[in-house]
UniProtKB/TrEMBL annotation:
GO terms for molecular function: flavin adenine dinucleotide binding; NAD(P)H dehydrogenase (quinone) activity; oxidoreductase activity, acting on a sulfur group of donors, NAD(P) as acceptor. It comes from Dyella dinghuensis. Keywords: Disulfide bond, FAD, Flavoprotein, NAD, NADP, Nucleotide-binding, Oxidoreductase, Redox-active center. InterPro entries: FAD/NAD-bd_sf, FAD/NAD-binding_dom, FAD/NAD-linked_Rdtase_dimer_sf, Pyr_nuc-diS_OxRdtase, Pyr_nucl-diS_OxRdtase_dimer, Pyr_OxRdtase_I_AS. The active site is at H441. This is FAD-containing oxidoreductase. NAD(+) binds at G177, G178, S179, Y180, I181, G182, L183, E184, E200, G267. Disulfide bonds join C42-C47. Belongs to the class-I pyridine nucleotide-disulfide oxidoreductase family.
Length: 458
């Protein structure tokens, strides 16, 4: 049997459901196909459960420090790990259920459960039927990459999906990969009581950030007892009665890590290998990302790709913005482009890193004349009052255009305060605009005008 629609959306992640809402409201008959959990990665195995666990871990950490604040907590405080995990699961299930109910009640939308695969450019097979439409929107996301590391197939390893199903706390968690996923889980599990070792093959953690950011993050994590092994060029795994051994150094006989659990957090790969893209003639690049133009159209007319699968962003907010761009261009006769997007993001260790625009390293390499300003969180009243003074704020501006080029706020509320810079950059205003703002005291954001006032040429 073949059914025809005005549009087909594959994947109910961060972009697909909202696009379904706009297309059906515009009068189109739409099919949305989801093979697994509604809400995709963010809701089920990404942002929502991890940030819920970050909250549990923060409470655990703050309780340990209670006496510093003049609050005496009786000795013998324990972590109820299953309860912390259940709390994360509840947040996920509520969100997943809301999306399912929203889509289930949407007029002109047909919800299909199953794996979609192209048979031609306008026809896909789902279970035992085919569906056709002149417009197909791909929102298939990605999954944890499992590279062919020596011994990886001999051990039981965890990914961001399976680690969320644990019901007992790991005795010793070895985290392979010291970037977003690895560092967030490392701190969560350390604060909940595991011994944790982060193994990173590059010479520093979260190496795409500036060195001062990497070094400070390492200090923050090591201060909590997380072991960090960088320059791990010879990672190899083997089975061990207590779990697995992780060989890190190339030198033979060097001490190995004996871990009860191993988490692989070494990047993600797009879910594009099982979509039948060749049948539709859609091009991918060598990573497997779907190649799109500035409006997110693929090389095949009538097929678009949104979110993690197009390689143009790897965050929930960029996936959602992809939907906004497509809807604006198709339905609102607007002219929106991905290249106009100024991307901010946060790394949710505690305190978080809020980031936007160029790093200092990238700015220096650009050849522009630069102004830089940096301030430690020890000189931010809000941080001092809260007793959380780790980190720093840094802004980089163009000395000729007076536009902000980038910022990093590693410290309490860094993920929120960064939006002051993000808004300024989106408004395309000179940094002096911030200098004369009158922010609220005591906040982290109130230091942005001070930072601007301290900008020095380099
Ligand atoms: C541990 C972790 C923490 C994260 N934390 C954050 C964070 O704090 N902030 C942030 O911005 N981002 C975070 N991210 C990234 C964020 O989750 C992703 O960028 C976002 O979910 C991408 O959304 P998407 O819509 O592109 O894809 P997804 O959310 O992955 O959705 C894709 C959907 O398509 C379905 N699908 C795939 N193939 C098919 C097919 N052939 N047929 C039918 N259905 C199919 C999948 O089942 C899935 O439901 C995190 C990611 C991880 C792994
Ligand atoms: N807070 C957030 O917004 C958030 C949180 C989690 C994930 N995410 C998204 O998920 C994506 C994937 O995150 P990720 O941390 O898995 O990947 P990543 O690509 O950011 O980092 C992978 C890390 O693993 C290291 N690595 C790669 N191969 C290795 C090996 N063989 N041995 C040891 N180390 C190795 C890399 O050097 C790198 O540091 C990110 O791009 C991000 O957009 C976002």
């Amino acid at each position: 049997m073949n059914r025809s629609f005005d549009a087909i959306i594959v994947g109910a992640g961060q972009a697909g459901p909202s696009l379904a809402g706009r297309l059906t409201a515009a009068g189109m008959n739409v099919a949305i196909v989801e093979r697994h959990w509604f809400g995709g990665t963010c809701v089920n195995t990404g942002c929502m459960p991890t940030k819920t666990l970050v909250a549990s871990a923060r409470v655990a950490h703050q309780v340990q420090r209670a006496a510093e604040y003049g609050v005496n907590v009786p000795a013998g405080v324990t972590i109820d790990f299953p309860r912390a995990m259940a709390r994360a699961h509840t947040v996920t299930m509520n969100s997943r259920g809301n999306i399912e109910r929203w889509l289930g009640g949407m007029d002109r939308l047909t919800v299909l459960r199953g794996h979609a695969r192209f048979e031609s450019a306008d026809t896909l097979r789902v279970n035992d039927e085919t569906i056709s439409a002149p417009r197909v929107f791909l929102n298939v996301g990605g999954r944890a990459a499992v590279p062919a590391m020596p011994g990886v197939d001999d051990i039981t390893y965890l990914t961001n999906t399976s680690i969320l199903q644990l019901d007992t706390l790991p005795r010793h968690l070895a985290v392979i990969g010291g970037s977003y996923i690895g560092l967030e889980f490392a701190q969560i599990f350390r604060r909940l009581g595991s011994e944790v070792t982060v193994v990173e093959k590059q010479s520093r953690l979260i190496a795409r950030e500036d060195e001062d950011v990497s070094v400070t993050i390492r200090q923050i994590l090591e201060a909590e007892g997380i072991h960090v092994r960088t320059d791990a060029e010879c990672i190899a795994f083997a089975k061990h009665p207590d779990g697995a051994t992780v060989k890190v150094d190339c030198t033979s006989g060097a001490p190995e890590i004996v871990a009860s659990h191993v988490l692989l957090a070494v990047g993600r790969r797009p879910n594009t290998d099982d979509l039948g893209l060749d049948k539709a003639g859609v091009h991918t690049d060598k990573r497997g990302d779907i190649v799109v133009d500035d409006t997110l159209a693929t090389n095949v007319p009538g097929i678009w790709a949104m979110g993690d699968c197009n390689g143009r962003g790897a965050f929930t907010h960029t996936a959602y913005n992809d939907y906004e761009i497509i809807a604006a261009n198709l339905l609102d006769k607007d002219n929106r482009k991905v290249s106009s997007r100024i991307v901010g993001y946060a790394l949710y260790i505690d305190p978080p890193l809020g980031r936007i625009g160029l790093t200092e390293t990238q700015a220096r390499a650009s050849g522009k004349r630069l102004m830089i300003s940096k301030r430690p969180m020890t000189r931010v009243g809000r941080a001092v009052e809260r007793g959380e003074t780790q980190g720093f704020m840094k802004i980089i501006a163009d000395a000729d255009t007076h536009r902000m080029l980038g910022a990093a706020i590693l410290g309490i509320s860094g993920d929120e305060a960064i939006h002051g810079v993000l808004d300024l950059m989106n408004a395309d205003q000179p940094y002096e605009t911030l200098k004369w703002a009158v922010p609220i005291h005591p906040t982290v954001s109130e230091l942005l005008p001070t930072l601007v006032g301290d900008l020095q040429p380099i």
